[in-house]
Design goal:
The protein has about 575 residues and is α+β, with helices and mostly antiparallel strands. About 30% of the residues lie in helices and about 25% in strands. The chain folds into 3 domains: about 5-45 and about 70-220, Phosphoenolpyruvate Carboxykinase, domain 1 (3-Layer(aba) Sandwich), CATH 3.40.449.10; about 225-295 and about 380-580, Alpha-Beta Complex (Phosphoenolpyruvate Carboxykinase, domain 3), CATH 3.90.228.20; about 295-375, Phosphoenolpyruvate Carboxykinase, domain 2. The protein is built from 16 helices and 33 strands. The strands form 8 sheets. Strands 1, 4, 5, 6, 7, 8, 9, 10 and 11 form a 9-stranded mixed sheet that branches. It has a 6-stranded mixed sheet with strand order 15-13-14-25-29-26, sandwiched between helices. A 5-stranded mixed sheet has the order 2-3-19-23-18, covered by helices on one side.
Length: about 575
């Protein structure tokens, strides 16, 4: 096959001359094609069939044990000027980066097939969507891209019609961590990734395109590409609200996007638009609209069960690819928190004994499923207009300090709240787990340019609209001596209800130096076993601790020096002054 788009045609030829594949295959995106890929991988051992009765069309992929998460230290933004990448990114000179990669890509597909995957991030017919083409030598990547994006002929037609597309080149290489790089060339709209087969490093439509390259494109085109879920909430009166929420990886975004209302919330309906990425655009009336550029979920498996997240649990009972989970004695996938089943084999394929320290699934083991597997999939996820956003929510994993929820005073203060997100690290990226790191807007690993310019861009929205969504911060993870104080999961709807009431100007709040906090009686706790003292604790603002936190944030901001927007510092100063005045 080939294409009428000469740019694409010659690029494919160029890449094949460099990488020397045995064959070139253009993906058409059909179900039959997906099934053929699955059969092929079952043959090569890239996939294993799981129990066909209980988990029909479900497969297990075991990655190389050194290749189980994103590698932020090997991820680079290659702009002419290092300042454009900013202190938030690793930077390499584009010329040097290309030379290094040219060597690594040289002949890397010998003996392999090169797959060409045209894909569209976002609904095929939407003006807000953007296309890309990923070239890869991994059939696992093709199968995952089939589930995660709108790929194949339809995307190719769109590319042929409209031109421009992001160019992604991926090879698993020899999986040598010393020859592993994930490089982005925002000016060329090029991504080159080698040496890893793991999701965020290899499914180039996701973090590489839909966040790093798209954030850069969004700066030029005045929109935002964000690490946000989009959830649609209908109250018993039939009013519909869409909330976009940003949390660092593995902080429960998929769970919030697929939330099950608690028993007390009769008549409430929650549907999922997206679980990881949102592209936000402003219309002429200053209203923000969001699309989910993805068509599937690449979710964390451990902890998924029927009690805590029935939708996610149901979504992964069929037509799912599992990566790095364990196996039960009857060949079902198994993970920590699955509650039933008898695990015998761990994610590396070793037979191990059950016991206190036994770990069967890798903590960052993942499921890949089409979003349509979700029983609460919202048809609006396919709407070309997107959905209007009522509230933006930021959150992190903070065992101390951050209250359950608070509302920023206005948009610019909300930008400070987003820029100040800090979170305890998780297993989604290589590195120490459980230390606090600054993760502005949950975009630390994903913003394709200097954070200072990114905050300036965020702040510019308040000059363009007086109709912006309110901005909130939540923390489901606050702890005391008994563990987590807030039950989380479905009960988070109680917090979202407060947020929606605030958006509708239905209730008052307590004004504090850090923003508006709920009066405890305004959070519906009926049916919850939570004491009044615990609720007080959840909305407590400890002034001294906040003064220290703000000092830490200020110190973090200093890294951005003179590019830092003045307005962000003004917002910071206002909060400090209010804290000191108390
Ligand atoms: O980066 S991944 O897409 O692999 C998952 C995540 O960290 O959110
Ligand atoms: Mn993510």
């Amino acid at each position: 096959m080939s294409t009428s788009n000469t740019e694409l045609q010659s690029w494919v030829e160029e890449v094949s001359e460099m990488t020397k594949p045995d064959n070139i295959y253009w993906c058409n995106g059909s179900k039959e094609e997906y099934e053929e890929f699955i059969q092929q991988m079952l043959g090569t051992g890239d996939l294993m069939q799981l129990n066909e009765e209980t988990f029909p069309n479900c497969y297990l992929h075991r990655s190389d044990p050194s290749d189980v998460a994103r590698v932020e230290h090997l991820t680079f933004i290659c702009t002419e000027d290092s300042e454009d990448a900013g202190p938030n990114n690793n930077w390499m000179d584009p010329k040097e980066a290309h030379e290094k990669l040219d060597q690594l890509f040289e002949n890397c597909m010998e003996g392999r097939t090169m797959y060409v995957i045209p894909y569209c991030m976002g609904p095929i017919g939407s003006e807000l969507s953007r296309c890309g083409v990923e070239i890869t030598d991994s059939p696992y990547v093709v199968a995952n891209m089939y589930l995660m994006t709108r790929m194949g002929n339809e995307a190719l037609s769109r590319i042929e019609k409209e031109g421009g597309f992001v160019k992604g080149i991926h090879s698993t290489g020899d999986l040598d961590p010393d020859k592993r790089f994930i490089m982005h060339f925002p000016d060329e709209k090029v991504i080159r990734s080698i040496g890893s087969g793991y999701g965020g490093n290899a499914l180039l439509g996701k973090k590489c395109h839909a966040l790093r390259i798209a954030s850069y494109q969004a700066l030029e085109e005045k929109w935002l590409a964000e690490h946000m879920l989009i959830v649609e909430i209908e109250n018993p009166q039939g009013e519909i609200f869409n909330i976009a929420a940003a949390f660092p990886s593995a902080c429960g975004k998929t769970n919030l996007a697929m939330l099950i209302p608690p028993d007390e919330y009769k008549g409430w309906k929650v549907r999922t638009i997206g679980d990881d990425i949102a592209w936000l655009h402003m219309d002429d009336g200053g209203q923000i609209w969001a699309i989910n550029p993805e068509a599937g979920y690449f979710g964390v498996v451990p902890g998924t069960n029927e009690d805590d997240n029935e939708n996610a649990y149901k979504a992964i009972q069929s037509n799912a690819i599992f990566t790095n989970v364990g196996l039960t004695d009857n060949n079902e996938p198994w993970w920590e928190g699955r509650k039933d089943g008898n695990p015998v084999i761990d994610w590396k394929g070793d037979k191990i004994e059950q016991g206190e320290n036994a770990v069967f699934a890798h903590p960052n083991s993942r499921f890949t499923v089409s979003a349509k597997n979700n029983p609460k999939y919202s048809d609006l996820a396919d709407s070309s207009k997107g959905v209007p956003i009522s509230a933006i929510v930021f959150g992190g994993r903070r065992s101390e300090l951050a209250p359950l929820v608070y509302e920023s005073k206005d948009w610019n203060h909300g930008v400070l709240v987003g820029a100040s997100v800090g979170s305890e690290t998780t297993a989604a990226a290589i590195g120490e787990v459980g230390v606090i790191r600054r993760d502005p807007m949950a975009m630390k690993p994903f913003c394709g340019y200097n954070f200072a310019d990114y905050w300036t861009h965020w702040l510019s929205f308040s000059e363009r609209s007086d109709n912006l969504p309110k901005i909130f911060h939540v923390n489901w993870f606050r702890k005391n001596e008994n563990g987590f104080i807030w039950p989380g999961f479905g009960d988070n709807l109680r917090v979202l209800e407060w947020i929606l009431k605030r958006c509708n100007n239905e209730i008052d709040a307590q004004e504090t130096p850090i923003g508006f906090l709920p009066k405890t009686e305004d959070i519906n706790t009926s049916g919850l076993k939570i004491t009044d003292e615990a609720m007080e604790e959840l909305v407590l603002v400890d002034n001294q601790k906040w003064i220290d936190e703000m000092a830490g944030i200020r110190e973090y901001f200093e890294e951005y020096e003179e590019r830092l927007p003045e307005k962000l510092l003004e917002e910071h100063t206002k909060v400090i002054e209010a804290l000191n005045a108390e």
